[in-house]
Amino acid sequence: MFKNQWKVLSVAMFVMVLVVCSSTAALAEQAVLTVADCVKCHSEQPAQIEAGGAAHKTEIDCQACHEGHRPSVANNIPECSNCHEGSAHYEVENCLGCHNPHQPLDVRLEGEHKQVCVSCHAGPEQQMVASPSQHATFACNFCHADKHGSIPQCIDCHEPHSESMTAADCSTCHQAHKPLELTYPANTASLLCASCHDSAFETLSASKAKHSQIACATCHTTKHKTVPQCADCHGVPHAQAMHERFPKCSDCHNIAHDLNNWPTKKN
């Protein structure tokens, strides 16, 4: 009798094992990881995405990139080129050298970079090629140091032309990627011109002629070293015979900054 009971018990236990195994297999088939499960094990990456994920936060989720989980997927770290293509910048090797995919716009620049930068920022390169200067010999991140998007002040490297100049004044005449091609707006203050041209400014300021009431940029328009002709404003103000006798305005009027100081001329 005891032997029969043992057989019954053994059969019952075998059936229970089959039931448990079948249930476990069924649960395993039904267990599917969701994005909500990622934070249960991974805290750092979701926090980075939340803080600065940009389009990686708003347009996609974890599973859009990490399509499977290890160990069932041997390598679930995707290549950036799986999604990003179609421009010169996306052909640059070693994306992770500058970008953290969980904070893709928080770009850190280590080493010296130029070609990587101009693959996105073609405009500055074109300006530096068209207007060569010492700036063109530097790596981009010599000025735009450490972090992408940082814009230095000129006075970080350059002494201002005068004590009255501020960092904001530099860009009135200079563009960083073509600093030797000076241009300025029509409303540029004469005092700013005086930072370099102090002698001319002092002479003009001391003059009692109407020119002293005109801003430097009115005559020296748009581009640095523009020297106008008197006739550009005054036309032909005297009789023809006088202009024939004195073909140069300076024969009588001296220089434009000091019209009252007429030169002595023997006739």
Walkthrough of the structure:
- The chain is mostly helical.
- Among the domains are: 104-180, no CATH class; 190-253, no CATH class.
- The chain has helices at 2-30, 35-41, 44-52, 55-58, 62-65, 115-118, 122-130, 140-143, 170-173, 190-193, 198-206, 216-219, 230-234, 240-245, 250-253.
- The longest helix is centred in the first third of the chain and has 29 residues, at 2-30.
- 9% of the residues are buried.
Count, helices: 15
Indicate the mean pLDDT.
86
* Bulk shape: rod-shaped
Radius of gyration equals 38 Å
Element order: H for helix, E for strand: HHHHHHHHHHHHHHH
What is the oligomer described by this structure?
A: single chain
Defining key terms:
267 residues; mainly alpha; 40% helix; rod-shaped
